[in-house]
Specification:
The complex is a heterodimer of chains A (267) and B (256). Chain A has 267 residues and is of the alpha/beta class. Helices cover 37% and strands 24% of the residues of chain A. The longest helix of chain A is centred in the C-terminal third of the chain and has 26 residues, at 237-262. Chain B has one domain (53-255): MetI-like (MetI-like fold, Orthogonal Bundle), CATH 1.10.3720. Classes of the chains: A alpha/beta (267), B mainly alpha (256).
């Protein structure tokens, strides 16, 4: 598995709705270095999910370019693996079969792909649940299954859209530790999209703050907390300062978003 | 502290025991009516006579011939109606415009009793197995089509996005995402359709035929062998229950 570098150049997206044109994302440019962990944080309705879909290649017809290791990527591609916010495991497959899914798609023989899937199963700590169906797992375990499935795809860039949004705060903090361990072990270039400040600071090398509609990059906050990091970091003074700093930026955007929504407009 | 639970007399009866008791009471009522009322005696022969008739039929090779014909007609109509229903359901589910265009027709045709077009089917497929299979196929087609359509429309959209993010080909999308995702609703449709197919086949055998369990039942009736008729009805009931249990067990296994 080779890590890659991601570059997003002047990406924008407009949607035409019956009420007029909505600019969801406007002129977003940033890059993620090889092996780096970057988070994009923004209020609800800031176009985070649009950006996620564009980078993942699920949306076409957008402005700008997405590049992996200097090459433009277009459409869904092997370089970028996505982990979705929603429950996305296949309910008719066991954990191990879910993880082996991208290998099956690639045409790998059954024995080989199950052997390979075991590695990713161990990585996310679900060895004891290999032959369980998603309905028999907790929400956190299902998201780990989805993450392992994407890792088995061996993407150069791991792209995650609020994968732990549906989980409680404690589970989320503990899963954060696991994510960091995996990220370190695989030297996996990772881009996380989230609305959770704690999560962004806990995990990232840099946090990019987005504005409420149209979604632009407002500020880049380097997270210089020492590595390796564990969830205990949330108790440190430096952590609190970073969260406060990001919240200051985000607060204005979030209240703009709230006003717009309460004014009768939906996302 | 929880108060001690009060057990009412009704709760003391185990549901299965109660079920058995119901059957015994019904049997006794039947037997009483049969013995003490000469008019009812014709319509409700003694249970003993029915039991005798049942054994006689079970040891008669001719019964198995008719059973075989009925089974073949039901299986053939499930194959024809099921393939058509699943095929059109997948097509209509994936091509949403087409699906929405045909949905109202399907919706209103589904509960229409198909037996009214038996004459047409006889004209088209003859008086033999052809028209019975056509009737059975037509009967099971609609529930299977409807549940397949609903199944495709209810697929969690994120699973499609997962498929696209792993860049599946159209073919892989069908075999690895759509088909497994609709398996459960399709099986439910098959279970509903099976009952309809059995009904369709038996009804057309009763209307016009010289073979099959429907024919056996109606000829027993026409020759006033009412006990024989009941025996056949019991066997048909057992057959339908067995088939239903078979599909239900497949359904459970898919439950995962």
């Amino acid at each position: 598995m080779s890590a890659g570098a991601l570059a997003v150049e002047h990406v924008g997206k407009r949607f035409v709705t019956p009420q007029g044109t909505v600019t969801a994302v406007e002129d977003v440019s940033f890059s993620v270095k090889k092996g780096e962990f970057v988070s994009i944080i923004g209020p609800s309705g800031c176009g985070k999910s649009t950006l996620f879909a564009i980078i993942g290649g699920l949306l076409d017809q957008y402005e700008g370019r997405v590049l992996v290791d200097g090459h433009t990527v277009d459409g869904a591609h092997h370089d970028i693996g996505m982990v979705f916010q929603e429950e996305s495991t296949f309910p008719w497959r066991t954990t191990i079969e879910n993880i082996a899914f991208p290998l099956e798609v690639a045409g790998m023989p059954k024995k080989e792909r199950l052997e390979k899937a075991v590695h990713f199963l161990e990585l996310v700590g679900l060895t004891d649940f290999a032959h369980r169906y998603p309905s028999e797992l907790s929400g956190g375990m299902r998201q780990r299954t989805a993450m392992a499935r994407t890792l088995a795809f061996e993407p150069k860039i791991l792209l995650m859209d609020e994968p732990f949004a549906a989980l409680d705060e404690q589970t989320r903090l503990l899963l954060g530790d696991q994510v960091l361990r995996i990220w370190r072990e695989l030297n996996q270039t990772t881009l996380l999209i989230t609305h959770n400040i704690t999560e962004a600071v806990q995990l990232s090398d840099r946090v990019l703050v987005m504005t409420y509609r149209p979604g632009r990059l407002k500020r880049e906050v380097p997270i210089d907390l020492p590595r390796p990091r564990s969830s205990e970091v949330v108790g440190s003074v430096a952590f609190g300062q970073l969260v406060g700093q990001i919240w200051k930026d985000l607060r204005e955007e979030a209240s703009r978003g709230m006003k717009a929504t309460e004014g009768g407009r939906n996302d | 502290m929880a108060a001690p639970q009060v057990i009412t007399p009704a709760q003391r009866w185990h549901p299965q025991l109660l079920r058995l008791a119901t059957l015994v009471v019904l049997g006794l009522a039947w037997e009483t009516a049969s013995r003490f009322n000469s008019t009812l005696n014709l319509a409700m022969p003694s249970l003993l006579m029915i039991a005798k008739a049942l054994f006689a039929i079970l040891f008669d090779g001719k019964f198995y011939q008719h059973l075989g014909i009925t089974l073949w007609q039901v299986v053939a109509s499930m194959v024809v109606g099921g393939l058509a229903g699943v095929g059109l359901g997948l097509w209509g589910g994936l091509k949403r415009r087409f699906g929405q265009a045909i949905e109202p027709y399907v919706y209103y045709l589904a509960p229409t009793p198909k037996i009214i077009i038996l004459p047409v089917l006889i004209l088209m497929f003859g008086v033999g197995s052809g028209s019975k299979i056509a009737m059975g196929a037509l009967s099971c087609f609609f529930p299977i089509l409807l549940s397949t359509l609903a199944g495709v429309w209810q697929i969690n959209p994120v699973l499609i996005r997962v498929g696209r993010s792993f860049h599946l080909s159209n073919r892989q999308m069908l075999t690895l995402v759509y088909l497994p995702a609709v398996m459960r609703p399709v099986i439910t449709g098959v279970r509903l359709g099976l009952g309809m197919a059995i009904t369709g086949v038996l009804l057309s055998q009763i209307r016009l035929s010289n073979a099959g369990l429907g024919f056996l039942a109606i000829s027993a009736f026409q020759t006033f062998q009412v006990a024989d008729m009941y025996a056949i009805l019991i066997l048909v009931f057992a057959l339908a229950a067995l088939a239903n249990a078979g599909v239900a067990s497949v359904e459970r296994r898919l439950g995962g």
